[in-house]
């Protein structure tokens, strides 16, 4: 880096530390995050507040300083013959006053805003016009920078200059990384042209082409790596063959509590195909709350046990582990199978009998939390490991479960009730086979969702009374946002008191549940609600994941504007678990942002978790959605999963086709792929990087 003209040792060190840029390749992939359009000049009379920014050429008449302390500012008058405007600065005032020239000719650039009957630009970019000073024109790149870089005069303009030097020098050495066939099929521009035009675009049209080409390439190599890993896993890792089905038949004929949906049958068929293939299964099972994933998991366990193997189910919290255990125990007992539970609160005394039972194979199924990962937990023959809510467990933890069977790694089934948009699933779980349960069990009615404003509260109380008269129960949920726990707690207590006034004892019993309560108090409140001793449970979001109460038919969400879409959807999933019609009421104030309106409208329009997840992805972006910075997903430099779904689909199909035809890239037409991967070296895990 330091040998590049305009960089030198000190700047190279700064780029290393501040932006993680060590090589020419790193620098080329430090893409601009936006462009300033300097292709045209405006006159002051043409300015309009709808312009994101404008460039004006004119003269600086005079300036003065006003205000005190933090409000101190320099205000200048700028004219161009068609009118005059104000320029305002709040920072760097001493330096400014030394450098500004009265009657000097300048180009100013910034966002025009009307103020006191004329336009003004706050903190404009100011370029001095004189013969030996080159003005910026065209589409000017703006790069992500840090304060330290700016202080050392490494701003976007400086980075742009360095980039031009690098591109001019690197031009003969930049090689094509995609096969001709793909370039022609998708009408992509070449790699060199793309890199030049992403940093120094010749026009807006060239910039669009450069973005399209680089996004496709990045997603293509991302998918190539994920699919290759999946194929390699299938070649390298054998799986136990589960061919016997006696237990399964017995369960189907005598004990299945309800007919399976078409989606459940389809998923079980996919799992069964994996089990008899002789290869290790790595499958993601997606299904909304209440879609019947647990029964599918149990039937998969039966297939394993039928063939002399043991099964385990790992959940992220004790509440979820208990719920799975309590849900599966009646089935296991009816089948004559031994099922145990292991969590952080399992006593030492119980562990002393539990560990040997597992090791000797007396325990067929074990449900637990992270406690299952402990070295002391050993199996006779672990054949199937089911992981619930995968995004809460890291790759290292999954690998630890693999090691629990040193002979043949267990089959892995990952379950999630968080619907993941298709584009995200392709990148986050592209190395897993994906199964989806996309229909609700028979007899379940879709939850009716309505949006009401605060003035409708008495109407909602009346509706709650009607439902309670029918013998149903109601949740009322208040938001909890860390910044102001005092305020939120007050909201909850105020709400609780107004509900107590509207639903007086002894006719109504009301429970309360919040994060400040001790675990046993929370459990006690939840159990009272479950036993129907309380009709209304006023709670914070601690009930988001938790106990299944089929009799609860109404979910009222207070201040719904303060919740994210996926959280609203998860909360709504607490009702609608029985055969009765259930309702979700979203209460909000009147002032709603456009994003909030979209969230509320989406909730009212659809119950489909995947549709909701797609909207959420567009509103929040992938990082927020997964809550993880998972490598392979967040390593994307230019592609945006919320917007680039069609490009991702094309990239994945292309990668799949090439790997099917030529898995080792030996055909001459795939030489660019082979050369690119070889140049990166085996250490580099992400093939979408520039060599």
Automatic annotation (TrEMBL):
| Molecular-function annotations in GO | 3'-5' DNA helicase activity; ATP binding; ATP hydrolysis activity; DNA binding
Q: Which residues form the Helicase ATP-binding domain?
A: 274-437
Give the EC number(s) under which this enzyme is classified. Answer: 5.6.2.4
Xref: SUPFAM superfamilies: Nucleic acid-binding proteins (SSF50249), P-loop containing nucleoside triphosphate hydrolases (SSF52540)
Q: Which Gene3D superfamilies match?
A: Nucleic acid-binding proteins, P-loop containing nucleotide triphosphate hydrolases
Top-level taxonomic group: Bacteria
Q: Which UniProt keywords apply?
A: ATP-binding, DNA damage, DNA recombination, DNA repair, DNA-binding, Helicase, Hydrolase, Isomerase, Nucleotide-binding
> Per its UniProt record, what CDD domains does this chain match?
DEXHc_RecG, RecG_wedge_OBF
Q: Enumerate the Gene Ontology biological process terms.
A: DNA recombination; DNA repair
Q: What class of enzyme is it?
A: isomerase
Give the Helicase C-terminal domain ranges. Answer: 448-623
Catalysed reactions listed for this entry = ATP + H2O = ADP + phosphate + H(+); Couples ATP hydrolysis with the unwinding of duplex DNA by translocating in the 3'-5' direction
Q: Is Isomerase there in the keyword field?
A: yes
Family of this protein: Belongs to the helicase family. RecG subfamily.
What PANTHER family does its record include?
ATP-DEPENDENT DNA HELICASE HOMOLOG RECG, CHLOROPLASTIC
Tell me, what does this protein do in biology? Plays a critical role in recombination and DNA repair. Helps process Holliday junction intermediates to mature products by catalyzing branch migration. Has replication fork regression activity, unwinds stalled or blocked replication forks to make a HJ that can be resolved. Has a DNA unwinding activity characteristic of a DNA helicase with 3'-5' polarity.
NCBIfam families, per database record: PRK10917.1-3, PRK10917.2-2, recG
| Name of the featured protein | ATP-dependent DNA helicase RecG
- Give the species this sequence originates from: Arsenicibacter rosenii
């Amino acid at each position: 880096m330091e040998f590049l003209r305009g960089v030198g040792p000190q700047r190279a060190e700064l780029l290393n530390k501040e932006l993680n840029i060590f090589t020419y390749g790193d620098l080329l992939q430090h893409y601009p995050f936006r462009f300033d359009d300097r292709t045209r000049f405006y006159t002051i009379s043409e300015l309009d507040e709808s312009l994101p920014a404008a460039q004006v050429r004119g003269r600086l008449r005079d300036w003065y300083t006003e205000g005190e302390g933090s409000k101190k500012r320099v205000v200048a008058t700028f004219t161009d013959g068609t009118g005059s405007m104000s320029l305002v600065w709040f920072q760097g005032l001493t330096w400014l006053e030394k450098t500004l020239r009265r009657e000097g000719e300048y180009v100013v650039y910034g966002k025009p805003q009307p103020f006191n009957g004329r336009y003004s630009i706050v903190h404009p970019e100011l370029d001095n016009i004189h013969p030996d000073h080159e003005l910026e024109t065209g589409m000017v790149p703006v790069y992500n920078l840090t304060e330290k870089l700016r202080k050392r005069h490494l701003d976007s303009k400086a980075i742009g200059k360095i980039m031009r030097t690098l591109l001019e020098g690197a031009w003969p050495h930049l090689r094509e990384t995609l096969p001709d066939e793909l370039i022609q099929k998708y009408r992509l521009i070449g790699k060199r042209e793309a890199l030049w035009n992403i940093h120094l675009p010749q026009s807006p049209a060239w910039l669009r082409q450069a973005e399209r080409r680089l996004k496709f390439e990045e997603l293509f190599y991302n998918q190539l790596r994920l699919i290759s890993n999946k194929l390699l896993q299938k070649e390298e890792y054998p799986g136990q063959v589960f061919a016997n089905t006696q237990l399964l038949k017995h369960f189907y004929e005598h004990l299945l509590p309800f007919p399976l949906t078409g989606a459940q049958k389809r998923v079980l068929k996919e799992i069964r195909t994996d089990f008899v293939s002789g290869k290790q299964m790595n499958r993601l099972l997606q299904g909304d709350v209440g879609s019947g994933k647990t029964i599918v998991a149990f039937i998969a366990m039966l297939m394993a046990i039928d063939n002399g193997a043991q099964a385990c189910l790992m959940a992220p919290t004790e509440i979820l582990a208990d719920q799975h255990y309590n849900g599966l125990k009646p089935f296991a007992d009816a089948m004559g199978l031994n099922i145990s539970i292991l969590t952080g609160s399992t006593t030492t005394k119980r562990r002393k009998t539990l560990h040997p039972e597992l090791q000797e194979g007396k325990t067929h199924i074990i449900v637990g939390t992270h406690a299952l990962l402990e070295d002391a937990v050993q199996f006779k023959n672990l054949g199937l490991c089911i992981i619930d809510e995968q995004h809460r467990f890291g790759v290292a933890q999954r690998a630890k479960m693999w090691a629990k069977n040193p002979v043949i790694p267990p089959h892995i089934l990952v379950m999630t009730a968080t619907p993941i948009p298709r584009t995200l699933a392709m990148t986050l779980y592209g190395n897993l086979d994906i199964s989806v349960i996309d229909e609700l069990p028979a007899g379940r009615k879709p939850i009716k969702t309505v949006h009401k404003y605060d003035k409708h509260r008495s109407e909602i109380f009346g509706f709650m009374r009607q439902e309670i008269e029918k013998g149903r129960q109601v949740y009322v949920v208040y938001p909890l946002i860390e910044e102001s726990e005092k305020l939120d707690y007050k909201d909850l207590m105020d709400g609780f008191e107004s509900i107590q006034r509207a639903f007086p004892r002894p006719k109504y019993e009301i429970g309360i549940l919040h994060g400040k309560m001790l675990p046993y108090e929370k459990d006690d409140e939840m159990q009272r609600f479950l036993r129907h001793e309380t009709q209304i449970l006023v709670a914070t979001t601690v009930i988001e994941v938790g106990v299944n109460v089929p009799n609860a038919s109404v979910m009222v969400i207070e201040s719904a504007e303060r919740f994210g879409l996926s959280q609203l959807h998860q909360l709504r999933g607490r009702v609608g678990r029985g055969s009765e019609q259930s309702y979700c009421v979203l209460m909000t104030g009147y002032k709603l942002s456009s994003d909030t309106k979209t969230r509320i409208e989406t909730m009212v329009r659809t119950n489909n978790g995947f549709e909701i997840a797609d909207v959420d992805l567009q509103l929040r972006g992938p990082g927020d959605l997964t809550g993880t910075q998972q490598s392979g997903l967040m390593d994307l430099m230019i592609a945006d999963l919320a917007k680039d779904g069609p490009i991702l689909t094309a990239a994945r199909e292309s990668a799949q086709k090439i790997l099917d035809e030529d898995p080792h890239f030996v055909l001459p037409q795939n030489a660019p792929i082979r050369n690119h991967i070889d140049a990166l070296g085996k250490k580099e895990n992400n093939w979408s990087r520039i060599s």
